[in-house]
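DM from R.C. (forwarded with permission)

"hey, sorry to bug you on a friday — could you get me a structure for this? deadline for the figure draft is monday and I only need the backbone to look sensible"
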Amino acid sequence: MRYQQLFANGLHELKQTADILLHLIFPHCCTGCGNDMLQANQVLCTTCADALPRTHFEHHANNPIEKIFWGRLPITYASAQYFFTKDSVMQNLMHALKYRGNKEVGLWLGKTIGAQLFSTNRFMQVDALVPLPLYPEKEHQRGYNQARVLCDGMAQAMQKPVLHQAVIRTHHTESQTKKTRVERWQNMEGRFLVADPGALQGKHLLLVDDVVTTGATLEACGRCLLDVPDVRLSIATLCCAFN
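My reply, with the result:
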């Protein structure tokens, strides 16, 4: 027994040494601030995690995200989990997810969003998650759809299926960034198609995207989903950026 314990202790010390050397060569850094004092299974340090600007909209009816769609889209519930501001931890996370190929961040954020939504009765009623689709060429260039990655993380926390192919984006669209509200809607009108309406009929769907500003893209996709008989629609985004 004594030799077995010595052997086990030796293995433990060897693993610790290997972990230290691996961290020196390939440091695991906080995505928010770059701090390298981070455990291998963490995405953010405690300081950055605490700094994320929660909205708590998921708990409140008639919240600012739901008001975006008043008179435009008959949704059941809507929420954005965080406020987006420039030069912030959230901007660093968004850039890591969308432009630096960091799917780990998206899965972590998705799990966090899912747990927060599932803590309120308002979103426990949904039947399935639907990621807002990218145009196939753009998804190929990026390597993945960030909304789909968020959905995969949310599904783990909410125990709901993800309908990855529910909606197809039929046309490439120009960037919405510098467009007015009307121009954004015109840019997105008729750009989505439900692949199999029969598979969605009678379901309460949660449409998911990374950010909402004017809501034009989500509105265009949501209208397409609501054309399916007896569909209820709710919306959830990672963050909101109000102009």
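R.C.: lifesaver. Confidence is low (pLDDT under 50) at residues 17-26.
me: no worries. The first strand starts at residue 78 and ends at 83.
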